[in-house]
Amino acid sequence: MKPKLTKIVLIFLTGWVLTGCTTPPSPQESTIKGRILFWHTWQGTEAQVLNDLIADFTTLHPGVDVITVPVSAGTIVNRFQDRSVSGLGPDIMLLDSRSIFELAEAGFINDISKQVDLEKQPYLSAALTAVQNNDQLFGIPFALHSQVLFYNKTLVQTPPTSLAELQTRVAAGEKMALDANLVDAIWGLGAFGGNIFDSEGQFSLSQGGLINWLDFLQQAQALPGFILGTDTQHLRELFVTGQVAYYVGASSDLPALQAAMSGLPPVAVPAQVADETQTEAEVPDTNITAAPAADIADILGVATLPVGPNEWQPSPVLRTDAFVFSRVSSPQEQELALALAEFLTNAQQQTRLALEGIGRIPAGAEIRRNRNLPESTVALVKQIRTAVAIPYAIRPIWDAFVQEGGEFNSGYTRALQGILSTSQFIDESAALVESQLGVETPEKDLSLYCPTSGGNEPITLSLWHALPEAEAEVMAQIAQNYETLCEGMSLEITALAADSIMERYIAEAEAGNGPDMLLASSRWTSRLAEMGLVADLSDTVRPEDLESLIPETAVAMRYQNRLYGVPQSVSVLALLYNKEMVDSLPISLEELLVQVTPEHRWALPMRFFYGYWGLNPFGGFLFNSETGLIEEQAGLVPWLTWLEVAQSRPGVDLTFDPAAATNAFARGEVAYLVQGPWVLPQLREALGEDGFGVAPLPSGPNGPGSPILQVEGVMLNVNSSELSEEAVAFIRYLSLPESQAIWLDTGTHVSASVVANMEDLPLLRGFQEEAKLASVVDENSKFAAMEALGDTLYADVLLNGVDVETAVIEFETAVQALSKTQP
């Protein structure tokens, strides 16, 4: 049986709406007596909190003497093993789940399943899974912690809630420190829809979450304010000293951060027993603590980690601290230790732990409602909802997976550094995990692709498209393969002319007819959704169906935050170059201008669509497609001014005839061309596969070029909504790597899937990489109207000689006037 990975599903109501089921000891129980030794790894403020709770226990039981000894986390396991072999050591310890696994496997701690009634226990199942192996129970969960986003309130007022917002803030000058160590960075996998293991415990890195997360990190670290590193202490110091506004760290670091940022000296707590010749009884737990300054809450903020595209939730590792019990203790000592653990995990003590705000929250499932929970506790409660528990049974696989210096970890580091491509890393890692860790690649669940298998009535689905001839042939082949795989499914594929397909579809759909599915550009998604002619797929398409895609492609097929199509390919502008004429690729616009000469020309098509890519590098442009108003236009004047100056340079050919620009490049007359993948067949025929290349658009003062992202995707006719399950099943089949591989053979299909193998297809890969930097716009009817005015703006400045600032004011005025006439 393969181990299962349990994701945390915690139902925390606002203010922790839960009540305790375990009561404090009654007076008659205070007759218990004895002495026990307690080791733990908590330090400073958190150790003082623990000591206070233990003091309450000894107050209720004056005959019990609990000797607490703090021991460093790095030595506690070995020290305990050494003492246990001699019949000594603590009776009870508070340990992290990884240490518990190590001691349990070595036979040093008790299985307490017979002493603890799990039918009545108040512990969270996600916490128990870390210390429970089938019927064996090796610990009583006490506290949970994970990763959170710390932010400096003196530098920023609020934390970013999404990765996109974080990028925007960093680009605007704020700074972020992010730990790139594998275990500390793996929270981003969930933010891109991925999992390390699926619900059956299967390795799932062949999916796109990790690729997209690595791509995000590589793009982000190019920003001056985004500090990515593996020296955790250095990153923490940058945050403490106010050099960065944001820091992703362990929630358990909170007390130390509070002390450091409030100007207090470090809390002095013995890391371990100072003298090996002393007994534990001779070394009291002497915590020297001081409460943080009263205004630390005005300095240090704690928030949940930012979400990713499609509202995907980050998935940090859940860490569980639990009480474990020595096998060499006497029965009386074991009874006392168990009584102490049960007291510390009752509802009243767990509520007290929650109120302390030490970056750890109770592992108890039943906590009293309290409106006075600290900000840090509230944030951690929310974060732990999406954290990933590492079950006891899967611990060996997990430890090998994240082992420092191990093959996977080394591959991850090389991919992050750009030494190894992300797709190569995924391929190598999947093979590694299967061969060395024994985790098999799961077989496909045919029910996801063949909804009629199992005796249902035959179903016919129809699909219209306007693909070029080569891709049309591939579509027919994929349809035939699907019919062979899925008995009872039949597909009717119809190819129509690109200049008439939308007009015909609209007419048919408005009449209640038309195909079941439409493969078309995202330029039409919002407009068709506005007209009510395509179906909302938000509740039919699973998050897993989108995980392997470039994240922004799904966003491009949304309308009013609802999904109306599933992406298949991307179409974006990029910089094409003639390999015989270009020795080194320019990174910036200024570098490009230096290389452009009358002998090495640059053909630059113009119109609003063709010129959009330069707006973000010069300050940005944002149009609200719902209101029809421009919300940001800082990039318009400087970009148009740059173009106006550039077109006077010898060798710069600005043209409003894209076909003429492409023809000139095909004839070898120009060295550079800005165009999309639709010109690849013409250029291959003219220059050969190896005669030209595709590179990123050059950057400007504020960042890289960012063209409009256009996506070819499958939409469902609103008149065929009853076939949504069947249609989505076929769409899933279209998105499979093997289906995408057939598409790639056409040489023009730039897959929207990041797991499609494009290593040997540099032209297509170049466009796909540019798509990851592209801008998503909602191309509804209001955007289309604004775009027409934008065409006039570019023509006025670059053809008619209108003053840039005057032309921009006239453009903005026209857009505002138009918004008042639109519904």
Quaternary state of the chains: single chain
Order the strands across the largest sheet as they lie in space.
2-1-3-12-6-13
Taking Cα atoms only, what radius of gyration do you get, to the nearest Å? Answer: 31 Å
Give the number of helices.
31
Distance between the termini: 59 Å
CATH superfamily of the largest domain: Periplasmic binding protein-like II
From the spread of the alpha carbons, the general shape counts as elongated
Helix/strand class: alpha/beta
CATH topology of the largest domain: D-Maltodextrin-Binding Protein, domain 2
Largest sheet: 6 strands, mixed
Q: What's the total number of strands?
A: 27
Unreliable stretches: 1-28, 266-294
Chain-averaged pLDDT: 88
Q: β content, as a range?
A: 15-25%
Helix percent reads 25-40%
**CATH architectural group of the largest domain:** 3-Layer(aba) Sandwich
Number of domains: 4
CATH class of the largest domain: Alpha Beta
SSE topology sketch:
Blueprint: E1 34-40, H1 44-60, E2 64-70, H2 76-85, E3 92-96, H3 97-105, H4 125-128, E4 132-133, E5 136-137, E6 140-145, E7 147-152, H5 163-171, E8 176-179, H6 182-185, H7 187-191, H8 209-220, E9 226-229, H9 232-240, E10 246-250, H10 254-261, E11 300-303, E12 319-325, H11 331-344, H12 347-356, E13 361-362, H13 375-384, H14 395-402, H15 407-416, H16 422-436, E14 459-465, H17 469-485, E15 489-495, H18 501-510, E16 517-521, H19 525-530, H20 543-546, H21 551-556, E17 558-559, E18 562-563, E19 566-571, E20 574-578, H22 589-595, E21 602-605, H23 608-611, E22 622-624, E23 629-632, H24 636-646, E24 652-655, H25 658-666, E25 672-675, H26 680-687, E26 692-695, E27 710-716, H27 724-735, H28 737-744, H29 762-771, H30 781-798, H31 804-821
